[in-house]
Amino acid sequence: MPDWLQLMIQSLPSLLIAGLRFTVPLTLLSFVLGLALGLLTALARLFAPAPLSMIARFYVWVIRGTPLLVQLFVIFYGLPSAGILLDAFPAALIGFTLNIGAYSSEIIRAAISSVPRGQWEAAYSIGMSWSQALRRTILPQATRVAVPPLSNTFISLVKDTSLAAAITVPELFQTAQRIVAVTYEPLILYIEAALIYLALSSILSSLQRRLEARFARYGGFLEART
Predict the structure, then answer these.
(1) Residues with Cβ < 8 Å from 155, sequence gap 6 or more?
(2) Which has fewest Cβ within 10 Å: 15, 56, 65, 111?
(3) SS3 67
């Protein structure tokens, strides 16, 4: 067996364990929390009073206008200067959540805006309140529009979690870096890490296609009924 293949086999368990213990939980938690934050931010921008809408706009402007790596450094290395100490994983979770929240808010805002105004009027005409119309009529239709770009955001997040290595989170990429420091085989180890990220992204891309197909059937069903 070639030395490079033996090294990849030996390092694979450590990389997979790091992925399962840190990369996958960080991705899932960040996306779920970021999606919730994005929904609130989108609703604030569309429907909230001017002061709240301006705060939401400012938040999105700052996050989208600065690099994710800088945001992580500010949270993990900068906040201690202000007396706020965070462990690496919570700091990464906060950073990724804020980043996903800003980007997903724009997707959700555009999806809600794409729903025709007549859908609101139809909901009001049968006695729904604003919240009922939003929950039962607008969001289900907006979801079908938002799923593809949100899925892409989720796939990108899987790869972006490698930036957490810069603030000492022992996720997949930092584990590869630690093995490299011992074996002095950066090419082999980094290719192996890249292949694992590729596998995760491929699985998620397959799930995305299935989800989009399901929503497409749902949309066709709605159009047939109308």
Answers:
(1) 201, 204, 205, 208
(2) 65
(3) coil
Q: Please, what sign has the CA dihedral across residues 44, 135, 34, 63?
A: negative
Domain ranges for the chain: 3-225
Helix axes 88-114, 24-47, angle to 10 degrees: 40
Q: CB of 138 within 8 A of CB of 44?
A: no
Q: Is the pTM of this model over 0.85?
A: yes
Which two three-digit tokens encode residue 160?
A: 């972006």
- CA-to-CA distance for 212 and 146, rounded, in angstroms? 10
Termini Cα distance of the chain:
64
State what percent of residues in the chain have pLDDT above 70: 95
Q: Say which residues have a Cβ less than 8 Å from residue 164's Cβ, sequence separation at least 6.
A: 22, 26, 72, 88, 92, 96, 171, 173, 174
How far apart CA 95 and CA 76 sit, in angstroms, is 9
**Structural tokens at position 142:** 């907006």
Residues in the chain: 226
Mean pLDDT on 154-158: 94
Q: Distance between CA 131 and CA 128 in Å, rounded?
A: 8
List Cβ neighbours of 152 (8 Å cut-off, separation of 6 or more): 208
- What is the mean predicted confidence (pLDDT) over 126-139? 93
* pLDDT at position 218: 57
Q: Which amino acid is at 174?
A: Q
